[in-house]
Amino acid sequence: MSRLVMKFGGTSMADLERIRRVAGLVAAEAANRRVAVVVSAMAGKTNELVAWTDGAGEAAGNLGPSDEEYDAVVASGEQVTAGLLAMILRNLGVPARSWLGWQVPIFTDSAHGRARIDDIPAANLIGALDAGEVAVIAGFQGVTRGGRLATLGRGGSDTTAVAIAAALKAESCDIYTDVDGVYTADPRIEAKARRLAKVSYEEMLEMASLGAKVLHSRSVEMAMAHGVLVRVLSSFVEPGGAPGPGTIVCDEEEILEKRIVSGVAFSRDEAKISLFGLPDHPGVSSEIFGRLADANVNVDMIVQSHARSEGAANMEFTVGRRDAARAVEIVKSAQSAIGFEEVAVDEEVAKVSVIGVGMRSHAGVAKTMFGALAEKGVNIQVISTSEIKISVLIDAAYTELAVRALHAAYGLDQP
Ligand code: ADP
Ligand code: ASP
Ligand code: MG
Fold first, then answer.
1. Would the CB of 234 count as within 6 Å of ligand 1?
2. CB 305 within 8 A of CB 314
């Protein structure tokens, strides 16, 4: 019998009424397949738990997302929903049990708060599935080799689901959420966004990494590496109804419709750091970015320009907003070694990106982007490109305007 993984996000698990609907969808699949279900905490629960750790951290002065106890707290939301769904399935006459990360076990590295799954010995799980039981697995969590709970980073239940699908060699990993697929842009921002029937792993990975939170970027990376077929579907179906076709994430070769641009994504999680009056000689970049790398601060976009005075340069780069204060501290503490005059940080920025595999073979994609933004009077602060995406950093106040202008400029609102 074939195996299927079904994952339900926070809004799908928001209360008992919703969990009953989820149980209905699971029961229908479990009638003719072996089913493992991965669940998120109820909507809003993880935020509440994180806020508690912030409060406790202030008091104790030592908690944060990289702390073991942060993970002990924030992993608890998924324990509740896994248990509740297993109970409701049993009440429906469907044999089921809950599985926490350590019970599977889902082994991770010890990077608390953003751990990576490194192994899932699946024998126990397969035994339970073969005995006809639905396995309801708590998403977002795993266990380190040292026996501590670890979480996978916000949105990480998608990654749990894909990792379980790979370990079980499941025929599909169905991600049920509050939208009925992957759209050309976040449908909450662009009402004219359209559902994509299929999207390639590469494009989905860029979209997720660049802010489209419909899938956790690591889940796409893992699906691509293990050839897991991912489907994004809506859990919001009438009782007894079936989900629509959703979006299939698959290899590029399987997509017949050729598009130049497939989607527009945005992220407000950026901060721009500017260094003014740098000496313009070899070794300066190495000095700055070496120090940031040593402190585990990820740098994304970078531009360097000549300053007005002879032999001096300015540098702008972006980091995650969460890392901004730390990054400033690091460069300030090395001011004399680096040799800049002034540092400034701007958190009111957003990164807007267009993504499409068609860019590899088509010229003019950047021209269309810059033209559309210019027409709306949106100033571009930093640009970065890769083979299949172009990103620009702009004033955060123009995010929605820019997303909609680009969506229209590439004809994404046209069928
Ligand atoms: P879940 O709780 O099910 O994991 P998320 O909130 O993490 O759901 O992800 C679903 C949300 O992702 C949608 O409600 C939508 O607003 C947002 N989203 C952002 N970009 C896109 C996109 N390109 N296509 C679909 N949804 C998107
Ligand atoms: N509950 C976790 C979060 O809110 C994981 C997830 O939902 O994917 O980030
Ligand atoms: Mg999610």
1. no
2. yes
Helices (H), 97-216: 123-130, 157-168, 201-209
Tokens of 355: 């993504």
Walk me through the domains of the chain, giving residue ranges and CATH numbers. Answer: 3-251 (3.40.1160.10), 264-409 (3.30.2130.10)
- Smallest-distance ligand from the CA of 11: 1
Q: How much is the CA Rg of the chain, to the nearest whole Å?
A: 23
Per-residue pLDDT reduced to its tens digit, 252-302: 999 988 889 999 999 999 999 999 999 988 999 999 999 999 998 999 999
Tokens of residue 186, six digits: 């976040």
For residue 184, how far is its CA from the centre of ligand 2 (angstroms)? 23
User: Is the CB of residue 140 below 6 angstroms from any atom belonging to ligand 2?
Assistant: yes
- Tens digits of per-residue pLDDT, 206-245? 999 999 999 999 999 999 999 999 999 999 988 778 889 9
391: Cβ below 6 Å to ligand 2? no
